[in-house]
Structures are given as C-alpha cells and as structure tokens.
Amino acid sequence: MVMDTTKYRWVAAWAAATLTTTVLAGCGTQVADGTNAEASSHYSGADVRAEAQRVYESFAGTQDQQDAAYVVQTYTRNGPLDECLAQRGYPEWDWSLSRPYASPYDALRPSVWFAEPGDRIYSENEIATRPFAEAEKVMNADDRWPAGFSKTVLECEDSIKPASDTEVENASRPAGSAKLIESWRTALTEVGEKLGGSFDAYFDCMAAADLTALKANGASYDDLAAVMAGEADKAGPPPAADQDPSTYSDAWKGFLATEDQVLAADTACRSDVYDANIGKVMATITDFSESHADEIAAARKGWDEVVAKAAQLGYHGQVGPLGK
After folding, report:
1. What pLDDT is recorded for position 23?
2. Terminal alpha carbon distance of the chain
3. Where are the alpha helices (DSSP H) in the chain?
4. pLDDT average, residue stretch 234-253
5. How many beta carbons lie within 10 A of that of residue 139, not counting itself?
6. Which of 149, 208, 271, 277 could form a disulfide with 145 if both were Cys (CB 3.0 to 4.6 A apart)?
7. Is residue 202 scored above 50 in pLDDT?
8. DSSP per-residue letters across 194-236
9. Which range scores top for mean pLDDT: 12-26, 125-139, 211-225?
10. Which are the contacts of 143, defined by CB distance < 8 A and separation ≥ 6?
11. d(CA 53, CA 257)
12. How far does Cα 293 stand from its chain's mean position?
C-alpha cells in the first residue's frame, strides 16, 4: 500500500517562485517622475538587476534563507509527528525528508517588461526542486515501511494538535516580510506599466509567437507554465544543480531547446522597451528602499533569526534529509 504523505508535502506559496508573469494588485509606491527618472536612465540592466535583487532579498530572503525557512516550516509541521513515531518504535522516520526547496526568483519579474532577459525560469525551477521530487519517491515507496506503520502514523496524528498556518508562518518568516513583498510587487508592476505601457501588448505578442510547445499541446499562452512543467516531466529527472551541462541527457537538452524558443520569443516581444527604459527602473528601487528602510531592517534581522533556527535543527545549507 502506498502511504498517503500529502500532509507532509506542504509548500508555502509566499516563497515559491511563480512561473507565469502576473500583474499583482495592492498598495505600494509609485515610480519617481521627471528629473529623478531621467537621471537614473544611465544605469545598465546589470546595475538595475543587481540592485533590485539586493533590495528584494533583504526583506524577502535569499534563496538560501528561504531554504532555511522551509526547514523551519517543515519541522514546525512535522516535528511532533517525528517525536511520536520515534516513541512508538519508528525512530528512522525523518521529519525533514519532505522539506521543499526554494527556486531562484528574479526581483524584477513583476515589472513584466523589465524581467531578466533569458532567465531560465522553467528549467531552473525544475533543477532547484529536484531534491524534493527525489524525496517524494522515497516517501511513496511501497516497501519503505513495515506492516503497522501506517496505522501508527494515524494514531500519532490523532494524538497531536497540528500547527496552524499562522503558527508555521510566524515561526519561519520575519514579521512584515509578506507585506513588503506585496508592496514591492505593486511598485514594480506600476513602474512596468508606466514605462512600458499596457502588459496586454506583451501578452498578445507572446500569444502570437507560434511556440512549438503550445502548438504540440493544443494550448494557449495562458497555459505556458503548465505546458512547460509537462514538457519537463516528459524529459525525465532534471540534472543536479552542479552537473556539467555537457552530461545532460538528450531528453533534457531537448527540453532546454524548447525553453530557448520561449526565451527567444520573450526577448523579441520586449527588448525595445527593456533597452530604452531599464535604467529608469532604478528610481523605483531607490525610492522603495528609502521609503521602507525601517521595515527592511527589521525583516533582515528576522531572516537572521530564521537561519539561526534552521541551524539548530541541523541545517547548514546541505541538500537532503537532515537526520535526527
């Protein structure tokens, strides 16, 4: 019998990198106008991307910090179950096996027009989450546990008060981080529309790009993220993060070629807007950083505390289960 491990695969939406470009609403800051915007236009795309990433990660967390948060989240949810199972004769059950992994995230993505050109959001997400996919196979193995284990799990679940979503969030995320993330996305959305115009022009261009992956699946541009996830599944297990690209399987190289076509269309649909205006986005980043300086400082301190909690649980940046 396959054990139902759904309860142990929780992935927090706040840290997951979205694969589709969406326009997010909410309260935020407006881009600086006039002289400030013009003065900032000399910044290169690399300058703007680096500063955007630095500011965003200072309150939203780096990829490593988000991985630490996932460790704390998973322990908060599964730690009591681990203790119960150990007491009932299953000390080898590891609460950390089911921990998710953060994907890279481009801080400029909400601006649509000014997201990083050539950013491999589809393949990078698959590679980043490979350890979780491997853990899923272990959790779902038919012969992993002896008879009686599933019954013991149910008994332990009945005896434990599960942590609420609020408790999990408070334990693993700095206070104020979520609000800052939403404000950032709003500010970037607004500057994207102001400098680049309606996002509909970009979406229409992508819809007309005649992408092979969409045609082969009878899908529209709105389905691109789901289609690319399906194409990645067809390519088989993704390579390891440190694997030499020359050793990738032919199927995975084929998936990268499919992704290349999507990225080429993306570049063609927004390169004119990007090249003409990317430097002007720096004014919004500077304004956001200055306007939210106190909240950002508090969030940065909070991330240090999250990392310290994860370290107490045995996490020091390694991949895979953490053991006891």
Report:
1. 30
2. 26
3. 34-39, 45-60, 63-87, 121-128, 130-139, 149-159, 165-172, 177-196, 199-207, 212-216, 224-234, 250-277, 282-291, 293-312
4. 94
5. 17
6. 149
7. yes
8. HHH--HHHHHHHHHTS--HHHHHTT--GGGHHHHHHHHHHHT-
9. 211-225
10. none
11. 27
12. 24
Calculate the CA 238 to chain-centre distance: 17
Distance from C-alpha of 87 to C-alpha of 202, rounded to nearest angstrom: 57
Averaged pLDDT for residues 303-308: 97
By C-alpha distance, which of 63, 71, 286, 58 is closest to 174?
58
Among candidate residues 71, 111, 153, the one with its CA nearest the CA of residue 270? 111
Q: Is the dihedral of CA 47, 52, 57, 63 positive or negative?
A: negative
Per-residue confidence band for 41, with pLDDT thresholds at 50, 70 and 90 = low
Structure tokens at 1: 């019998």
How far apart (Å, rounded) are the C-alpha atoms in residues 281 and 285? 7
pTM for this entry: 0.83
Residue 166's pLDDT is what? 92
The tokens for 275 are 């090249």
Scan for tokens 């940046």, then name that residue.
317
Give the separation between CA 297 and CA 53, rounded to whole angstroms.
16
% of residues, the chain, pLDDT over 70? 86
